[in-house]
Amino acid sequence: RAKAQGRNRFCFFADDMDDEVRNRNRLEVDLRRALETGEGLVVHYQPQMSCDGRCVTGLEALVRWQHPMLGLLPPSQFLSVADECGLSVRIDDWVLEHTCQVMERLPEVPVAVNLSPAQFYTGDLFERVTDIVRRHGVDPARIELEITERVLLEDNASSHGALRRLREAGFRIALDDFGTGYSSLSYLRRFRVDKIKIDQSFVRHLDHSQEASCIVRAIVSLGQAMGLDVTAEGVETEDQLRYLALLGCDQMQGYLFSPPVPEPGLTALGLTTMRQAMEAAFPAVESG
Ligand code: C2E
Ligand code: MG
Ligand code: MG
Ligand code: MG
């Protein structure tokens, strides 16, 4: 059948493949250079709000890449390449380093950073993380390490050990994209974490899906029963905010309050946007 469709089709396909491979290789070369020179990678910070909306409880550091030709790239456009060529650990380390520098200027605010699953195969995760943080004199208690369910589920003794030691050293551990990874909850019995982050795919459908709202309610009760902080991701509407606040979700993060912003924008733009969102959602509440 493939033959019957003719030679041209195959040629097109081969050309596309070539392009893809070329683009990927190009990205890899550029990414290595960016990591070497420290030019191009940037971190944006997205605020996390308390559920009464009165204060910023923390920030999440999210990497971007200002590519010389392609413009500002979101993580979805380069993290998988980074992963394939073994660069994701270096990106994470760079983000942590950068975040610690910012934290010296922004006293008190806790900041969350994302750890790629590859971090857990390095064997020296604990040493690298504690070293970076110590060099900047940042209190580990102000740093939250976001991991995905996959990391806890994989039977990797050294990564489990690293996580325990990090937590003992004072770092907080958050489970990112909660509910999307695996249906097994047994790891919650074996590993202590501090926070679960309800994945935005559930939050997005809250307004119109009974199922989504049941799942979110169940995750919030699970978190509460286990004494974990529960953060909702991807909060975009006032209805979502009100429902999540009603359920007793502890923190919220989403475009409703602020998109991720570069550091200089944090104090100015970030905070006014959030104030406005809260006033619109809770008109009865005096803003303080
Ligand atoms: P994540 O850790 O779950 O981060 C949340 C993502 O949702 C971010 O996308 C954020 O910009 C986006 N977001 C926030 N609020 C809203 C909203 O209201 N609506 C919608 N639709 N999206 C919202 P971003 O920055 O593109 O990052 C995507 C993913 O890339 C992150 O998901 C995280 O898994 C990964 N990532 C980002 N930075 C790093 C990093 O430094 N290291 C590692 N290993 N992964 C990172
Ligand atoms: Mg995250
Ligand atoms: Mg997430
Ligand atoms: Mg994610």
UniProtKB/TrEMBL annotation:
Residues 24-274 form the EAL domain. Transmembrane segments: none annotated. The keyword rRNA-binding does not apply. Keywords: Plasmid. The keyword 4Fe-4S does not apply. This is Bifunctional diguanylate cyclase/phosphodiesterase. It comes from Azospirillum thermophilum. The lineage of its organism: Bacteria, Pseudomonadati, Pseudomonadota, Alphaproteobacteria, Rhodospirillales. The chain holds residues 477 to 764 of 764 of the full protein.
